[in-house]
Design brief:
- It is a single chain.
- The chain has 252 residues and is α+β, with helices and mostly antiparallel strands.
- It has two domains: 93 residues; 140 residues, Sandwich (Immunoglobulin-like), CATH 2.60.40.
- 31% of the residues lie in helices and 24% in strands.
- The chain is built from three helices and eleven strands, in the order ααββββββββββαβ.
- The strands form two sheets. It has a six-stranded mixed β-sheet with strand order 8-5-1-2-3-11, with helices on one face. A five-stranded mixed β-sheet has the order 4-10-9-6-7.
- Helix 1 runs antiparallel to helix 2.
- The radius of gyration is 26 Å and the shape is elongated.
- Bound molecules: copper (II) ion.
- The site of copper (II) ion has 7 residues, from loops.
Length: 252
């Protein structure tokens, strides 16, 4: 249902949507029920000529039930929501499938740098491909990412993946995703990170296996001409010891 508004572009997007839907249905049903009872009582006990209002202290056993029974219901449904949320957390954040591709994501005020592993599938080798604000991935592969920040706390958010992860300076935070839909989707910093926070968008381009390989070959072989995907921003190759990529205080 949520996918009508926002495409599900990762393998765990539907799992996250399922949880959001479960919470919406539980909260929604109880909201409508509670409002119906409230307005029903207002109408039933509205002012009438010749009838004095009764002061209800709520101490009678029959009256207390109006409070205690909904409390029990809240506890039961809370447990259901917590159990479902823990299951999703485990599937998305705790257990990761075996890695097939690697990408390094570096946040800074106010742009994203993506270091793609290149044809050899390994980071920090001569064929790494570095792009700014545009990430290129292949549909159907499990990507593990390492997330860095060069200055303040940022948050790597890809709504179509249902993925959001803080980037914390001084820490390398790892995660994973498996793109399932071809196309271009938004990336946005989701943490207030300074004046240019709103100007920190990016894009993830998900290509078919052939498209993605051609994109990599076009960049890793300077002589090659076949490029089906043209990067929106200038692309430079990065060497393993590129000092421009080093963190503050780190020597490479
Ligand atoms: Cu930011």
């Amino acid at each position: 249902m949520i996918s009508w508004l926002l495409p599900q572009a990762s393998s765990f997007a539907s799992t996250v949507d399922g949880l959001v839907l479960l919470i919406s249905v539980i909260v929604g049903v109880w909201f409508i029920l509670a409002e119906a009872v409230l307005f029903g009582l207002i109408v039933k006990f509205q002012a009438r000529d010749g009838v004095r209002g009764r002061y209800v202290s709520g101490e009678e056993k029959t009256e207390k039930r109006w409070v205690s029974y909904p409390h029990y219901a809240v506890i039961v449904f809370d447990i259901i929501i917590i159990a479902a949320a823990l299951r999703v957390w485990n599937d998305v954040k705790v257990v990761a499938p075996p890695s097939e591709e690697q990408v390094r994501i570096v946040a800074q005020q106010w742009s994203w740098t993506f270091v793609h592993a290149g044809l050899d599938g390994r980071l920090d080798t001569a064929d790494d491909i570095r792009t700014v604000d545009d990430m290129y991935v292949r549909r159907g592969r499990v990507y593990t990412f390492e997330l860095h920040s060069r200055d303040v706390v940022h948050s790597f958010s890809v709504p179509a993946f249902r993925l959001k992860q803080d980037a914390v300076p001084g820490r390398i935070i790892r995660g994973w995703f498996r793109p399932t839909l071809e196309g271009t989707f938004d990336i946005q910093c989701a943490e207030m990170c300074g004046l240019g926070h709103g100007l920190m968008p990016g894009r993830v381009h998900i290509g078919s296996p052939t498209q993605h390989e051609e994109w990599m070959r076009g960049l890793t072989n300077p002589g090659a001409t076949a490029r089906t995907v043209t990067p929106a921003t200038p692309v430079t190759r990065v060497a393993a010891n590129d000092p421009a990529y080093a963190h503050p205080g780190e020597t490479r």
